């Protein structure tokens, strides 16, 4: 066991390094130091992901993290649109839509196809719409409507929606 100095609660590093090789030291949160509540077993560890994959997922989530970009993705779920159609549908300015479209395009969320002077945008992948829809539905589930009822998610006719109970 590592030596602990009586005047401080931290481990004496020199004693620890002499007794235990660096790779053999237990992590403070490891199973060796943690005891679960009786009757509860530790969950199976999640599969390890490549760090580059996790970075890419974080960048994707950051690209989706603005309310206007969420609204754009929801709008593009129904059909491809050009910028002026998004301006009309969302009620925001053209420069703001263009700025957000650049972020979404660079993150690989949307793809643009030029038609004359216009660029028509569509979602690059339907999975992206599911991420946004699920986040919106979760937010709706956890907020209460003005009438005080509880909003819950429901599936009707194969489509997802919410209803107030």
UniProtKB/TrEMBL annotation:
Residues 24-35 have a biased composition (Basic and acidic residues). Keywords: DNA-binding, Transcription, Transcription regulation. The keyword DNA-binding applies. PANTHER family: ARSENICAL RESISTANCE OPERON REPRESSOR, TRANSCRIPTIONAL REGULATOR, ARSR FAMILY. This is Metalloregulator ArsR/SmtB family transcription factor. The keyword Transcription applies. Residues 12-22 have a biased composition (Polar residues). Residues 1-50, 142-165 are annotated as: Disordered. It comes from Allosaccharopolyspora coralli.
